[in-house]
Amino acid sequence: MTPKRKRLWLLLGSMGVLGAALALVLVSLSDNLVFFYSPTQVAEKSLPPDRRFRLGGLVEPGSVTKEDQGQVTRFRVTDTRRSIEVVYRGLLPDLFREGQGVVTEGSLSAGGVFLAREVLAKHDETYMPPEVAKALKDAGHWRDGAKK
Amino acid sequence: MSRPAANLHFLANPARFRRFVARVLPALWLVTAASLAGGLWLALVTAPVDYQQGHTVRIMFVHVPSAWLSMAGYALLAGLGASLLVWRHPLAALMARAAAPVGACFAAICLLTGSLWGKPMWGAWWVWDARLTSMLLLFFLYLGHIALTRAYDNPDRGDRAAAILALVGVVNVPVIKFSVDWWHTLHQPASVVKIGGPTIHPTILWPLLAMAAALLLLFVALVLMRTDSEIDRRRLELAERPS
């Protein structure tokens, strides 16, 4: 075996070991690497009240109501299997609307309502001009290709 | 010497590399300038607005190619590192020194434009989700590479240390790419390189690809030019070193 060949195998071997080590670390830490929990995950975890975490999902269509002269927003975050009621006082991002992705940070109250301190809009991966979006909606093909 | 390695040795000779650069670079700069002008025209003038984002979508035309190039640039550093450590190519070390600051700039542009987009769209300049954090790590890996190459009195030792960092750090590149699929992130999933084809309307996708091609040409031209001047710098250092 020439020195070059030996160095090449040493390099490939080290890269393999390094990759495997990284994969193990990422798999074991995956619960901490997620940015938010879905309503189903929250239900499975039974998190204690006052524990701060992020809840993410879609704003359930028809669930948004305003209180206190529009300063307080009440809506439900759903992953289509379960949903959690959210109360938030403050300004909402422009992209916040029914049926859109949203990530909120806060904690559960004793009654199971999520008291949000921050609401972020989640943008999806589709990009199109307004005319195309309108044509898709008119033709009834809106979100045909959407996941879930 | 094995045959695939022999193919890699094309242009490994610095003198041949310099002749190649001298012949190619002027034309490459012309093509780069023309395609950047064309790409920016498509992206900023003719591309339609997005149905949700309005004009903010135009940030993507710089943000996404910068992200691709910063990841490709780090993969290049790793390839050059392997070439230096395994085949002892002197030119690989010089090209790594030339490429690292260019890649770092693209990573910085990606982070800054992403932040400018995030505030109006998400409602936050920055969040610590897996995609953004791994991208920030890539930027720091670039800075570490630049620092390591300059950390030793003997430049060869710096090149070796930086090559090892490039090979270790390159495992972060697939993590960046797949972070949006493996974990819940605030950052949206892939739109262009994904199973089932792009989810970007062609009127927005083509300007994006034009900008990606133009910035790729810019990246290549900058790296070739900087490698050429790194050869000069190394020759000067060797001439000045007390023997």
In short:
By secondary structure, chain A is of the alpha+beta class. Chain A has four helices and six strands. The longest helix of chain A is centred in the N-terminal third of the chain and has 26 residues.
Characterize the structure shown.
The complex is a heterodimer of chains A (148) and B (243). By secondary structure, chain A is α+β, with helices and mostly antiparallel strands. Chain A has two domains: 1-32; 34-138, Beta Barrel (OB fold (Dihydrolipoamide Acetyltransferase, E2P)), CATH 2.40.50.140. Chain A has four helices and six strands. Chain A has helices at residues 3-28, 30-33, 39-45, 130-139, and strands spanning 53-59, 65-67, 72-78, 83-89, 101-108, 114-122. Chain A has a five-stranded mixed beta barrel. Chain A starts with a helix and ends in a 9-residue tail after the last helix. In chain A, 22% of the residues are buried. The model of chain A has no long low-confidence stretch (mean pLDDT 86). Chain B is an all-alpha fold and 243 residues long. Chain B has a domain at 60-203. Chain B is 76% helix and 0% strand. Chain B has helices spanning 3-8, 14-46, 60-87, 90-121, 130-149, 155-169, 172-182, 202-240. In chain B, 40% of the residues are buried. Residues 1-8 of chain B have low confidence and may be disordered.
List the main descriptive attributes of the protein structure presented here.
heterodimer, A: 148 residues, alpha+beta, OB fold (Dihydrolipoamide Acetyltransferase, E2P), five-stranded mixed beta barrel, 6 strands, flat, B: 243 residues, mainly alpha, 76% helix, 0% strand, globular, disordered N terminus
